[in-house]
């Protein structure tokens, strides 16, 4: 059996906020490259072959040809390319010269030269004592690219440092399209009563519901004397009760997405995280010494936090599996599905893209053409 290399397991992805989905079109997807069009920008994420990859230069050249084809196909778009190029563009060798020529020929500018930063490294392997700059963003529009940075996080378990870029995106031409789907939000927000200050909630509802109670008492004698309550009056009390409960809940009950709170998180992890952050900042303020007490404390606290974090994360699967097993042993279908839905939620998945587009009008036209074609075939 052939064991896959780390290179074989690498992939690329682009995560898009739901608010931008109506303006987004999936353009190209492959193992080492993905491209999406968001409004007037074409965003391309690439992962170039690293040193030691078979036929590296040939693969590299093929990827550059594919990127070039995308740029030509979307000539009316601004271009932003980001990813792991696996070369240092400030060096002189065959691949570096090839990439720099590609940037010049396509009028692309490196964001790290537009916005110079103190931290020049995007790859840092502390155990190998190796550092280099291999992650880049390049842009075709300098005026719409307003910021760039290499983030040196207090706690980072990866060898790669995250890099960020800020763009100006024109959504005005798609205003109608955006409004058509503005109300769609597949991510349900729930009230988390188990993390609320219920005393404050009860006190506030008491204050708001007191006026309703007083009004009910005023009408009590009228009702006992043979009078009748009108539908309008009952609706008025009902709405006041609902409003009081809703207002109090909004003020004192946290609203979070499903699985926002991790049941396995505890005070020990809080303390370990805080220690890792403090030792990292002390080590960084001392200009990152490679030896000595600060270096030892930084590595020790980081590794201990990472170890305990993985151990506690493992409890999420084991505890959840045990709960399901116990529900099945009790032959309790209600308990089983209650545990299942608490973890995975209900069947709320909805298709938000068809043939690469999320525009409602375009999707309707796609279905209309499909139905028309099938009708003609019959």
Secondary structure elements and pairings:
Elements (H helix, E strand, L loop, with lengths): L5 H4 L14 E6 L3 E6 L2 E7 L8 H18 L4 E7 L9 H12 L3 E2 H4 L8 E3 L4 E3 L2 E5 L5 E6 L12 E5 L7 H6 L8 E3 L6 H27 L6 H22 L2 E3 L9 H19 L7 H37 L3 H12 L15 H18 L1
Parallel strand pairs: 3-4
Antiparallel strand pairs: 1-2, 2-3, 4-8, 5-8, 6-7, 9-10, 11-12
Helix pairs in contact: 2-3, 6-7, 8-9, 9-10
Kindly report the spatial arrangement of strands forming the biggest sheet: 1-2-3-4-8-5
Please, how many domains?
4
CATH homologous superfamily classification of the largest domain? Endonuclease/exonuclease/phosphatase
What are the segments in which pLDDT stays under 50 over at least 5 consecutive residues?
A: 175-186
Gyration radius from CA atoms, angstroms = 29 Å
Order of helices and strands: HEEEHEHEHEEEEEHEHHEHHHH
Strand content: 5-15%
CATH top level assignment of the largest domain: Alpha Beta
What is the overall silhouette? extended
The main β sheet shows up as: 6 strands, mixed
Number of beta-strand segments: 12
**SS-derived structural category:** alpha+beta
Distance between the termini: 51 Å
CATH fold annotation of the largest domain:
Deoxyribonuclease I, Chain A
Q: Please estimate the helix content.
A: 40-55%
Instruction: Note the total helix count.
Output: 11
């Amino acid at each position: 059996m052939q064991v896959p290399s780390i290179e074989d397991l690498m992939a690329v992805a682009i995560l898009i906020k739901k608010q931008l989905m109506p303006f987004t079109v999936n353009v190209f997807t492959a193992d080492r490259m993905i491209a999406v069009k968001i409004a007037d920008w074409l965003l391309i994420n690439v992962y170039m072959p690293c040193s030691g990859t078979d036929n590296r230069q040939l693969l590299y050249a093929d990827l550059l040809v594919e990127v070039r084809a995308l740029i030509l196909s979307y000539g009316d778009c601004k271009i932003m390319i980001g990813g792991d190029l696996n070369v240092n563009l400030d060096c002189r060798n065959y691949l570096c010269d090839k990439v720099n020529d590609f940037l010049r020929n396509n009028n692309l500018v490196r964001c790290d030269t537009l916005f110079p930063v103190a931290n020049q490294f995007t790859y840092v392997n502390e155990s190998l004592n190796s550092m280099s700059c291999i992650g880049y963003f390049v842009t075709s529009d300098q005026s719409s690219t307003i910021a760039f940075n290499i983030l040196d996080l207090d706690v980072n378990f990866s060898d790669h440092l995250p890099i960020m870029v800020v763009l100006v995106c024109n959504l005005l031409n798609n205003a109608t399209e955006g409004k058509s789907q503005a109300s769609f939000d597949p991510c349900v927000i729930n009230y988390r009563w188990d993390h609320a200050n219920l005393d404050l909630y009860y006190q506030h509802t008491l204050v708001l519901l007191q006026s309703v109670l007083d009004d009910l008492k005023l009408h009590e004698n009228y009702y006992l004397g043979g009078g009748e309550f009108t539908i309008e009056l009952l609706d008025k009390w009902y709405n006041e009760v609902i409003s009081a409960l809703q207002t109090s809940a909004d003020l004192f009950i946290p609203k979070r997405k499903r699985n926002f709170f991790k049941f396995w998180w505890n005070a020990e992890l809080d303390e370990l995280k805080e220690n890792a952050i403090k030792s990292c900042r002390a080590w960084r303020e001392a200009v990152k010494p490679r030896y000595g007490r600060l270096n030892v404390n930084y590595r020790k606290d980081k590794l201990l936090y990472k170890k305990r974090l993985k151990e506690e994360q493992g409890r999420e699967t084991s505890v959840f599996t045990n709960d399901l097993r116990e529900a099945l042993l009790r032959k309790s279908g209600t308990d089983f599905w209650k545990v299942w839905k608490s973890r995975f939620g209900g069947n709320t998945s909805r298709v938000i893209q068809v043939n690469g587009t999320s525009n409602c009008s375009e999707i309707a036209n796609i279905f209309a053409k499909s139905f028309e074609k099938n009708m003609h075939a019959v």
